[in-house]
Amino acid sequence: MKKSNLGKIARYQLVCIFLLIGLVAAVVFSINSGTVHMSVKDIFDIIVLRANEGSVESNVIWKIRLPRLLAAAILGGGLSVAGYLLQTFFRNPIAGPYVLGISSGSKMFVGFTMIVLMHYVKTIPAGIIVLAAFVGALVSMAFVMAAARKVTDMSMLLVVGVMIGYICSAITDFFINFAQENEIANLTNWSLGSFSGIGWSDIRVMSIVIFSSLFAVMMLSKPIGAYQLGEGYAKSMGINIKLFRLLLVLFSSLLAATVTAFAGPIAFVGIAVPQIAKMLMNTSKPIIIIPTTFLTGAVFCTFSDLLARTMFAPTELTISTVTAFFGAPFVIWLLLKKKK
Questions:
Q1: What is the pTM of this model?
Q2: Which of 34, 195, 238, 280 registers the highest number of CB atoms within 10 A of its CB?
Q3: Distance from CA of residue 312 to its chain's centroid?
């Protein structure tokens, strides 16, 4: 084996170890942040050994902090992979679910579904919310794809995406005017973006959807690598381009919709994290970048959620406030780099 290949493998391993350490650190800090403080040993005993069941510490971990932490990791990773698929589809590093208005489309359909169904049922199944978000994502994606056929400049396509986002937000606000007071409070908190209030039943649903989608995307890593080299090359490799592009749309929409359904629209994660993963690994191979993107997104969102909860405690910031604070400058840097 060549020294260069050995160096690449060593780099991949070091980056993965670094990200795993970061995720473990995020777990410890997140679980131990708040009014109830616990040592690392207590956290280990409660989670691994199931010690002190029924105590305040155990209830805080199992009913509040651990579900929220897992949601931040799973949804953050899923949103990052959705951004990677959209960047592959549009062949541009500044494409993402939030900027292209896909998250806003999901938000619009979820808001409408919640307002209508809350008149008839007290609780809405998580599967219904995910389905509504998926339909909204597909509708927004259809408008973006229609604009992409007419617009060759990516900057104009981003403007179209932002306008679609504004239209969807305006329609959502229109729905809210006809909602009841308790519905307005729920919709407002959800639409601002947050991992709070997520339970174990929600974790089960999002895990099934996101990890199944991630497995399917991993199976597409070879076609993605060929597609990145050009449609002509991909066709010569026997890839059905229309089917492949349809799969990219479906999986990116499903991942983005799942995130929006449970946590609301989250800004800039889908743009910044895939680029960070590529810089960390110094490669564009999909088989390497896809899991790295998921892991990087999990670490990024868990730390962002930690900052959102603790920076101005007891006041909690929205998750998009934190992700935009770190992600927006990175996107500006990408735009300037692309312009050069």
A1: 0.88
A2: 195
A3: 24
Of the candidates 97, 71, 42, which has an alpha carbon nearest to the alpha carbon of residue 272? Answer: 97
Q: How many angstroms separate the CA atoms of 87 and 270, rounded?
A: 9
Q: Which two tokens stand for residue 248?
A: 């990219």
Cis link prior to 265 (omega < 30° from 0)?
Answer: no
What pLDDT, in 10s, does the model give residues 257-290? 899 888 888 888 888 899 899 988 888 889 999 9
Task: List the domains of the chain with CATH numbers.
Answer: 3-339 (1.10.3470.10)
Q: How far apart are CA 33 and CA 35, in angstroms?
A: 7
- How many angstroms separate the CA atoms of 28 and 41, rounded? 10
Q: At what angle do helices 200-219 and 126-150 cross, to 10 degrees?
A: 40
Calculate the alpha carbon distances from 100 to 96, 162, 241, 247 in Å. Answer: 6, 6, 22, 18
Distance CA 84, CA 97 (A): 10
